[in-house]
Amino acid sequence: PKMNFLVTATLFLILSHSFAFTFKSRPSVGRSNFLSMSVQPDHISQLCADISPTGNAILLDVREVDEFSAGHFADASNEPLSALSAGTFPTDRKTGSAIKPNSKIYIHCKMGGRAMQAADLLTRMGYNDVTPIKESFQELADMEISPVVSA
After folding, report:
1. Distance (Å, whole) CA 97 – CA 107
2. 83: which of 33, 35, 114, 140 is 20 to 30 A away, CA to CA?
3. Cα–Cα distance for residue pair 32/20, rounded to 1 Å
4. pLDDT-derived band of residue 68, with 50, 70 and 90 as boundaries?
5. Residues 118, 107: contact at Cβ < 8 Å?
């Protein structure tokens, strides 16, 4: 019993020291460091390229009008999920006309849930290239996918 205690205590000290060393020797990679390096996941880099002035995709914000008015991406068109649910077809803010069913559409909202619902709705409405964005509005703003327009 005494020997088991010593072995256990020794292993604990070795492992805890090794564990602590691992974390102390690694540089801190906090959220601000990650973002300041402008590193983006591949799907976000693709989104940025697709919604750029030379891209051909539409960024659709499905938050409600008051949320959109409080702050939105300069490149986004707003069509609230409530309007889509009522059967309204989304409008491209650049052209003022309905978004064509063969258009590439990225959908975002505040936290990602409404984007998923809107993607399902748009697919059922006949749109065939719809991508819901799982990142929150704030995460996308932090990654600087598009300038944020505030009220």
Report:
1. 18
2. 140
3. 23
4. very high
5. yes
Rg of the chain's alpha carbons, rounded to an integer? 23
How far apart are alpha carbons 26 and 30 in whole angstroms?
A: 12
Query: With a threshold of 0.90, does the pTM exceed it?
Result: no
Nearest alpha carbon to residue 145 among 79, 47, 27, 55:
47
CB 7 within 8 A of CB 1: no
* Residue 42: pLDDT band with limits 50, 70, 90: confident
* Residue 68 CB contacts under 8 Å (≥ 6 apart), including other chains: 61, 76, 78, 80
106-123 pLDDT tens trace: 999 999 999 999 999 999
Asked whether 62 and 69 are in contact (CB, 8 A), the reply is no
